[in-house]
Amino acid sequence: MCEKLRKVNSWLGAVFGDQPVPPFEVNTRTVDILYQMAQSSEARCSDTALLIEDYKQKTSEYQADAAHFEDVLLQGVGLSGASLSKPTADYLSALVDNAMVLGVKDTSLTSFMPAINNLTGDLLEVEKSNRKLERELRALQKRLGSTLVLRGNLQEDIDKTTKSQAVESAKAEERLLNMDFVTAKAQELSIRQQRSEAQLVSRNMDKSITHQAIVQLSEEVGALQNEIIPLKKKLEPYMDLSPVRSFSSFSDFITFPTKGAITFPVSSFEKKKKNLLILKCAFFHSKPSEPISCTSEDRRSKKRTSVSRFQT
Predict the structure, then answer these.
(1) Average pLDDT in the chain
(2) Which of 54, 91, 178, 247 holds its CA 20 to 30 A away from the CA of 121?
(3) What pLDDT is stored for residue 83 in this prediction?
(4) Residue 284's Cα: distance from chain center in Å?
C-alpha cells in the first residue's frame, strides 16, 4: 500500500510538474486506480520513447542516404541541391510526395504505373458503387413517397375509426341504458302479470275470455270464413232470387182455400229452391236470430201459383 502510494505521488508530481497536485481521498480503491493509471502511463511513455528513438534512427539514415545521393548527383551529373531552380525543386518535391502517397518503393515509371492503375481501378469501383447507391437511393425515395402517402391514408382511416368508435361507444352506452330500462320494465310487467293472474284465479275467471282462448276462437273464425268462401261461390248463381218466408213455420203441404181441402206435396225442386232461398236469406239478408218472414200478399201469391200449377 505504501509503495503504491509513493509511486502514485511521484507519477502525479511528474504529470502536474510545477502545479500543485489536487487533493484526493486516500483509500485502497483510489490508490489502486491511480496505480493502474501510473503503470499504463509509464508503459505508453516507454513505447513513445522507443518510437522516437526509431524515428531518429530512420531520420539519420535518410539524411545519410540523401547526402550519398547528393554526392552521386554531384559527381555523376554535376547537380546539387543548391544549383536546382525553384520550379525543379518543387517538381521533385511533388514527385516525392506522390511516391509517398502511392506507397511505391521508388520514383521510377515502372513503380508509378501499377500504382496509378490500381488507383484507377479503385476509382472505377467507387464510381460503380456510387451509381448503385444512387439507384438504390432513388428506389428508396419512391418507396418513401408511397410510404408517406400510405401513412397519410392510414392516419385518416385511424381518425375516422376513432370517431366511429366514439359514436358507436355512445350508441352502445345508450343501448345499455335502454336495455337496463327495458329489463326493469319487463320485470315490473312480469310482477304485475303474476299479480293479475293471481287476482283472476282468486275471482274464478272464465277461461273462455282469456287472450289465448280469444286467439284460438279468432283462428277458428278464420278457418270457418275460409270454408264459407267456396259456399259463397256456389251460391253466386242464386244471388238474384228474391227471399221468401221460411217453410219451417207451417206444414210441408199446401192447403187451397177452395171448396174442400185440396192438398198436394211440394215437389223436390220446390224443396231445393226453398232451401237455397233460406240459405241466401240467412247469409245476406237477415241476422241469424231473426226469422225470415213474408207478407200476407206474398203468401196469397204463392198459393195462387201453387193452385195454377196443380190445375195445369
Answers:
(1) 76
(2) 91
(3) 66
(4) 68
Contact 263, 214 (CB under 8 A): no
Do 115 and 104 contact (CB within 8 A), yes or no? Answer: yes
What is the pLDDT confidence band of residue 168, given thresholds at 50, 70 and 90?
A: very high
The CB density around residue 70, as the number of other CB atoms within 10 Å, is: 14
Residues 6+ apart with CB under 8 A from 13: 21
Confidence of residue 19 (pLDDT cuts 50, 70, 90): confident
Mean pLDDT across 87-101: 80
- What is the distance in angstroms between the CA of the first residue and the CA of the last residue of the chain? 168
CB 245 within 8 A of CB 294: yes
Cα–Cα distance measured from residue 124 to residue 114, given in angstroms and rounded to the nearest whole number: 15
**Phi, psi at residue 275, to the nearest 5°?**
-65, -40
Please determine, for residue 259, whether its predicted confidence score (pLDDT) is greater than 90: no
SS (H, E, C) the chain: CHHHHHHHHHHHHHHHCCCCCCCCCCCHHHHHHHHHHHHHHHHHHHHHHHHHHHHHHHHHHHHHHHHHHHHHHHHHCCCCCCCCCHHHHHHHHHHHHHHHHHCCCCCCHHHHHHHHHHHHHHHHHHHHHHHHHHHHHHHHHHHHHHHHHHHHHHHHHHHHHHHHHHHHHHHHHHHHHHHHHHHHHHHHHHHHHHHHHHHHHHCCCCHHHCHHHHHHHHHHHHHHHHHHHHHHHHHHHHCCCCCCCCHHHCCCEEECCECECCEEECCHHHHHHHHHHHHHHHHHCCCCCCCCCCCHHHHHHHHHHHHHHHHC
| Side-chain half-sphere exposure of 102, counting CA atoms within 13 A | 23
- Supply the pLDDT for residue 274: 56
CB 216 within 8 A of CB 264: no
Other Cβ atoms closer than 10 A to 34: 19
Indicate the range of 140-154, 164-178, 253-267, 270-284 predicted with least confidence: 253-267
